[in-house]
Design a protein that fits this description.
single chain; alpha/beta; seven-stranded mixed β-sheet; three-stranded antiparallel β-sheet; globular
Amino acid sequence: MPSVHAQPADNKRNYIWRHNLVPQHEFFYSEVDEALKKVLGSGRYILADELQNFEQDFAEYIGCDYALGVASGTDALYLALRVAGIQPGDEVITSTYAPTPTPAAILMAGGTPVFCNVEKDTCLMDASRIEELVTQKTRFIIPVHIFGLPCNMSEITELARRHELLVIEDAAQAHGSSIGDKKAGSYGALSCFSFYPTKNLGGYGDGGMILTNDSNYYETLLQLRNYGKRDDPFTSYRQGVNSRLDEVQAAVLRVKLKHLDRMNQERSRRAQIYQKGLKDSPLLFLNSQHSQLENVYTNNHIFTVLCPDQRDDLRAYLELQRIQTNIYYPTLLHQMPAYRSFVRENQSFETAEILSRQALALPLYPELDLDDVEYIIEKILDFFER
């Protein structure tokens, strides 16, 4: 077994972060500075022109009629469930291989999360396992496009149609991902995005977006995000919340949206270098062309590889070489104390648990130096050759 106590790398070498926001800030500094000066000079910081313009731009980019900015991706899911009419105890089928905002939002809205196992080569919700989870209480399916890989939406939407269920996409990691010419976030009755700083389209704080083609949903959401108010600023017409994407974040995100496709292409370039350099290593790559889908495009939000053996030793070795990695996710949703009670009797999540023990996220972001990618490949190969 390779020793993780090997000689550490030269401390003069810069530490390679899995994700580093500083280079991106420097790249966008002039454009963002100009946009922020415009906002700050306007004296209008909530529900004004920058948000409206960004909503229009993002709706057009994804391919939906309406977009509505909210305070976070979690709020986006919560409000989407609210507007869709969720009732206490309604069951919402989602993936166990997902971040915690998804079940948190379901519970916030009064629903009951039901966890589904995943495909062995994608970490995505296994569409073939959804139907066995449907009961008389099931009302919604929330597929999670994990790591930027889009779920099998044709199969999921067809199943939802047969059982009269509503699909709400969790596209928090899928900005720009697509199946053919149709982008992730344009399949469900509603879809939800996050603009957390490390997302492919990230702000300088929290933020989220809800998209839909339903004008009634849109009009209701306008009220729900703003205390249930309509035109009268002092009267609430329904029980709403305060969840508004502010003008500063909207201005920053509008600048970055113009560059999103280029940034995704830079991610793809680095991912291809990894795949070529590591093709003969024991590492396995997630399969973007999954479930008989064709022309699947991933935005490479998180470049996760599978290490069938010695994953933790490899991670420790890379840390000694001043290379940061992460594990997404060391604890799956069905394993967490907060959500164990929602696991049904005799449910098995063996596939998800195996993937969780193998998954390792390598450094990847648009500005990552190509020489650093080659260095990471070299050190991974060194580990397996010892």
